[in-house]
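Re: beginner question about structure tokens

> Can someone show what the tokenized structure looks like for a real chain? I only ever see the sequence side.

Sure, here's an example I had lying around. Input first:
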Amino acid sequence: MCLITLVCSLVLGMSIPSDTSSKADSVLVVKSERKLKLIRHGEIFREYTIALGSRPLGHKWEEGDQRTPEGFYILDWRNPVSRFYRSIHVSYPDATDESYARMAGIDPGGNIMIHGLPNDSLASKWQGWDWTDGCIAVANDAMDEIWKAVDEGTPIEIRP
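And the corresponding structure tokens:
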């Protein structure tokens, strides 16, 4: 931390914006690899192991199908007091998802998040298997890094 940042934060109670060079331009999730990748200037600069919905193959179509959506979305808001450590919302369902659901007479679901582990459990209990209801889960230390690197409005692509 530089001296100016330290003085501003300790003495004046001010915060200095974080280094924007550590921010992601976009996020890429590759479900088949179980990886979330932070991208800046077209290059991957961080990569994390993820867990998905308990039925990970295919696109999410309806509430309760245990699938993680596929396609292009926006990370549009965040929850610092989530029951899964911290969470960042994926803008599913989009207009196409809603239109399909309306035509099929189903509820597309929603509330898909990138999040940490459940607050009331041991991390080791959740590692190595797909356990979410369709969200993208990471370890809490990974969630801390993603939280700092991703701003609201960041695009996310979720691939099969």
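Each token stands for a local structural state, so reading them left to right follows the chain. The CA atoms of residues 111 and 151 lie 18 Å apart.
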